[in-house]
Amino acid sequence: MKTIISILLDKLEVSYTPVYLQKLTEKCNQAQTLSDITLLLAYYKVESLAVQIGREELSEIPLPALVLASQKDENGKTHNDYSILEEVRENEVALINVKAEKEIIQIEDFEKSWTGYTLLLDKNENAAESNYLAHKKAEKKQSIFDSVKTIIQVLVGISFLFLIGKSFSETSTNNVKSIFEISFYVLHSVGFIISAILLSGEIFKENVIFKKACKALGKSSCADTNTTEKSKIESLKKWFTFSELGIYYFFGAFLFLVISKFQNDFLAFMLQSLFSVLGIFAVITSLYYQKFILKKWCSLCVSVMAVLFIESVLGGMYLFISQNDLAEITISPLLSPFAIAIFSFLLPVFVWNILKPILTKYNSYKNEMKNLHSFKYDFEVFKTLLYQSKRIDVSEVPTHFVEGNTASDENPVSLVVISRPTCPPCISAKKDLQKLRENFGSYFKMTTCHLTANQTSEDYKQISELLSKLPTSYSEVEKEHIISHHYAWINQQEISFTPAFILNGYLLPEKYTVSDLNYFMVHLANEMEEEIQINQEELVS
Questions:
Q1: Which family does the record assign (predicted)?
Q2: S-S: 217 plus which of 51, 249, 296, 299, CB 3.0-4.6 Å?
Q3: Average pLDDT over residues 57-69
Q4: Residue 409: inside a domain, yes or no?
């Protein structure tokens, strides 16, 4: 599914893979704010700057640009929507919306919803997804795997239906009744799946499958309808919701038919038909609630009601064509099917009441972790914790191992790494640093300072080998002096653990790792640039 970011990358002709873009979007808080989008675009080497401008500046900004609009929906809720500003004319603007549709609207109408917040874009000549070819190859493999999996699932489904049909055709003397019986199996399965999706949206508020299914079935208010207290049966609202009732009925009915195959399946289908006919009251009740009480329509709920309605019609028809057999039924043979029905319908109730508190607790824990994640990766929070950390003077740090942006006139973010070659956490951090350089190498300068205890240690030998690989040639005496210099500087800063990271002169807080810097590097670079501009303006004045 296309997003405004993928449409923007297409517009900028930046190579990307949807799967990796989705992963990055999740990392960047679903790209909800301009700050999130700035970070996300930085992964693709697209520089961006968020500004707030007025109508008079629109014709002066580089295009395309991302604009933020604020609108109210039919329920009165305010939603922020992003569009791509493609062209600015004298009295109108050309926008590309989230559906990749081009819209030409009057500039006065545009101003009514436009917040003024605009993201200016500057595409790097090397703009592309990191490891794009590898990601593209993996995506093709996954696509082939998904296709094969879908084919297998379809074949299994067809085979299952074929076996059921064959079983009924062999055991039933009436082929018309067999068609009804198969229809009940299929409808119960469809009803259960839709009810399960509906219930997943009730338990897991941010369920992607629920949202996609709701949108796929047309414009509706599934989330609002499903979560409001009015969606519960008023007299029994402490016991179950409509979605839970759907699960109980469809699963129980399917199980009832399966078990009854080993008993008197004729009587079982008679009972099933009776249950289905009675289901028409649930259809009427649900439609009444949505129309007159909730005053909103839920497409998934209506779909469940459609399945129930079809079952009611089929059940009535089944009873009608079997009316001659009904006259011969006595009470005693019905006891066994009734017992099976009670068991079949109570089993899902029992199982769900065990699973529900577990899933609810898990969802609550997941939401708490998400909130903590958002709090942890809030730049202002990170900056506050960083500036509360230990201050370290890095003006005299040894500069034998320097990587990243070494241009002195660009004033990049400073990152000093204290490491030991044989330290396992240091080896792991080295991989994270490599990824950080791949994503934001132009934003920071990394200086590595190596810690070793004595000349006989393995660390000393490996550091000596690293010095031998540098462009500058060093004698053994010079190497010894350099390694001692590194050790003395680290010891002077009273750093006794590795790896340690010093960011812009502050020790990285314990709650953060080097991989977390992927979230903040763009913000840090922008902040440093702003500070430099302010200092220059103060010097001029």
A1: Belongs to the VKOR family.
A2: 299
A3: 87
A4: yes
